[in-house]
Amino acid sequence: MSLKVAIQGIKGSNHHQVANDFFGNNIDLVECLSFDAMIDNICNGTADKGIMAIENSIAGSIIPNYNLVYHNNIHIIGEHYLSIHHNLMVSPGITIEGIQEVHSHPMALLQCKEFFRQYPEIKLVESVDTAETARRIKEEKLTTIAAIAPKKAAELYDLEIIAPEIQTIKNNATRFIILKKQNKVLPKEEINKASLRFITDHKRGSLATVLNVMSDCNMNLTKIQSLPVIETPWKYAFFVDVTFETYDHFAKAKSLLEIMSEDFRVLGEYKNALLP
């Protein structure tokens, strides 16, 4: 029985590529057109695992996704970095002069703005997914609409790439997290990264004290993101990623942070992925 993996998007999307890179090709994709739907599929058992983009090297963090993981009690069991390649694709035989609109995910459009400065007559239209537009071009035989999508989408939906690698910054990568209902799928000796969420009180220096504890326990802080606590105005939660050499160091830090902070939770313990 194949592993059921929920992704935001459809076949040919970057999430699809990450699913194949992380789990191999022998998987059943559960296609979702929103991150909320993807989380729902994990929670109700329709999917065994999930793939979620969490931050981009250009655009930064995808803020709402942190709260989606926390509020649904989903666990991070891994991560994967993917180099992002944006390609302009059309129905066979169409040239760029015949394009009236380009549809893609808002992030893709943002990352290709410089390319389209030379084509002010082309309208940029936001859609739910990069590959979804590519599929629609094929199914509806659209000739005046182009898509920005990964190369895999052009192959799947028989489109022609008329302008490859149109992203403004070529060294562009997205970090994806791998999700599951239960925490930890690796033995302790293989775990060297963790994602945490906690709240500090309003005393001066309280966050600095927490960070000093992490440092004293040989934790390397790789990410910190603050988000408002919706239920309590002007109170903030911190989402933190740390790496460490031994699990014992992390266990010590964890026991101290549980005492020093409010609403402390480990969102995931997993293996640090290599940067692209």
End-to-end gap:
31 Å
Structural class determined from secondary elements: alpha/beta
The total tally of domains equals: 3
- Give the CATH architecture of the largest domain: 3-Layer(aba) Sandwich
Order of helices and strands: EHEHEEHEEEHHEHEHEEEHEEHE
List low-confidence stretches: none
The number of helices is 9
The proportion of strand residues reads: 25-35%
Stated plainly, the CATH topology of the largest domain is called: D-Maltodextrin-Binding Protein, domain 2
Q: Name the average pLDDT.
A: 94
- Major sheet characteristics: 6 strands, mixed
User: What do we call the CATH homologous superfamily of the largest domain?
Assistant: Periplasmic binding protein-like II
| CATH hierarchy class name of the largest domain | Alpha Beta
Radius of gyration: 21 Å
Categorize the overall geometry: elongated
Total strands: 15
Specify the helix fraction band: 25-40%
Features:
single chain; 276 residues; D-Maltodextrin-Binding Protein, domain 2; Alpha-Beta Plaits; 6-stranded mixed β-sheet; 9 helices; 15 strands; elongated
Would you give an account of this structure?
The protein is an alpha/beta fold and 276 residues long. It folds into three domains: 3-83 and 172-180, Periplasmic binding protein-like II (D-Maltodextrin-Binding Protein, domain 2), CATH 3.40.190.10; 87-163, Periplasmic binding protein-like II (D-Maltodextrin-Binding Protein, domain 2, 3-Layer(aba) Sandwich); 191-268, Alpha-Beta Plaits (2-Layer Sandwich). Helices cover 29% and strands 34% of the residues. It has helices spanning 14-23, 35-43, 63-71, 106-111, 113-116, 130-140, 151-156, 206-216, 247-260; strands at residues 3-8, 27-32, 49-56, 60-61, 75-83, 87-90, 101-104, 123-126, 145-149, 160-163, 173-180, 193-199, 220-228, 236-243, 262-270. Strands 1, 2, 3, 4, 5 and 11 form a six-stranded mixed beta sheet that branches. The longest helix is centred in the C-terminal third of the chain and has 14 residues, at 247-260. The chain starts with a strand and ends in a 6-residue tail after the last strand. The mean pLDDT is 94.
